[in-house]
Amino acid sequence: MQVNRPDEPAYAGGATFQKLPLALDASDLEGADIAILGAPMDDLVSNRPGTRYGPRAIRLAWDGGGPPEAYNIDLGVDPFAELTVVDHGDASVVPGNAVASHTGIHEAVRRIVAAGVVPIVLGGDHSIAYPDISAVAANYGPGELTVVQFDTHADTATEIWGVKYSHGSPFRHLVDENILQGDRLIQIALRGYWPLPEEFKWMRSKGVRWHRMEEIADLGIKAVAERVLEEIPDDNNLFLSVDVDALDPAFAPGTGTPEPGGMTSHELLSAVRKLVLVKGLAGMEVVEVSPPYDPANITATVAHRVVLEALSAFALHRGRRTPAPENP
Ligand SMILES: [Mn+2]
């Protein structure tokens, strides 16, 4: 269903991602390549809330008009000319009932995957990784999905404040419940003061790999991305989990648990582009955007562009084409 008039400016009209058609029903997903899904919840954060407003802010963080077009000058591709992308609306969430919200998110992602469509989920706090990654992983054999997680925190606690499925623990439970194999979880940009040695000990025991922010500073993001590519098995089933707090708070102030000393926006966009270009995309989430702490929409805008970068790279990957940057 087209909910926007043709040729209206960015600030006019309805709030679908990139003014894409709204595809609320399962039957509407037929023939699509990618479905955008909102997961607006913030019940499970440990500090500042507000991510329930994330999906709408990310959807609106675009300055072009409709119909959807976005020519990526570094790749030489307009993903919307090559991919059928729809907006599946938001998952059914229940304020104050995180279990019900997780069920709604899991169901919506399961519906998208069952239609043969790649889901891109806009969070929401990082607890949504448990319901959305489990729905994608179910589509693959045991140990056949790789998750690359951009994050300042590993999110591998057993519980936070006594809450098992919090935003600080999804990857612990995905691995411990054999939904995701530990050696198929690769983390990028860890820094600061959490997790603690006990979490790192568990991570080592499960074969989890990580690249600290300091490694990015030492080697550069392109070299680290190459290392990550070597760590991803050849089956190429890549799920990207992008927590915007991987970025430095200067680039992403609108988030619940900011940590200084992080990635630049360019480093994140560059890494996402490289990984998806080579490995494709089985699913993706962009989480922890909290608009109440986001002056000037800085964080929502970079979250939106991370999605566009993945879409652009996926279009080239699927067409088995190489980048054609617009050089002089
Ligand atoms: Mn996180």
Order of strands in the sheet with most strands:
2-1-3-8-7-4-5-6
Q: According to CATH, what is the topology?
A: Arginase, Chain A
Task: State the helicity in percent bands.
Answer: 25-40%
Which structural class best describes the helix and strand composition? alpha/beta
| Corresponding CATH architecture | 3-Layer(aba) Sandwich
Q: How many domains is the backbone divided into? A: 1
**Uncertain segments:** none
Name of the CATH homologous superfamily: Ureohydrolase domain
Largest sheet: 8 strands, parallel
How does the overall form come out from the CA principal axes?
globular
Could you give the distance between the termini? Answer: 40 Å
In CATH, what is the class? Alpha Beta
Molecular structure report:
- With 328 residues, the protein is an alpha/beta fold.
- It has a single domain (17-318), classed as Ureohydrolase domain (Arginase, Chain A).
- It contains ten helices and eight strands.
- The protein has an eight-stranded parallel sheet, with helices on both faces.
- β5 (185-190), α6 (197-206) and β6 form a beta-alpha-beta unit.
- α3 packs parallel to α4, α4 runs parallel beside α5 and α9 packs parallel to α10 (298-318).
- The structure holds manganese (II) ion (MN).
- Manganese (II) ion binds at residues 126, 151, 153, 155, 243.
Strand and helix map with partners:
Blueprint: E1 34-39, H1 54-60, H2 79-82, E2 85-90, H3 98-114, E3 118-123, H4 129-137, E4 146-150, H5 170-176, E5 185-190, H6 197-206, E6 209-212, H7 213-219, H8 221-231, E7 238-243, H9 265-279, E8 283-287, H10 298-318
Helix pairs in contact: 1-10, 3-4, 4-5, 7-8, 8-9, 9-10
The structure holds manganese (II) ion.
Manganese (II) ion binds near residues 126, 151, 153, 155 and 243.
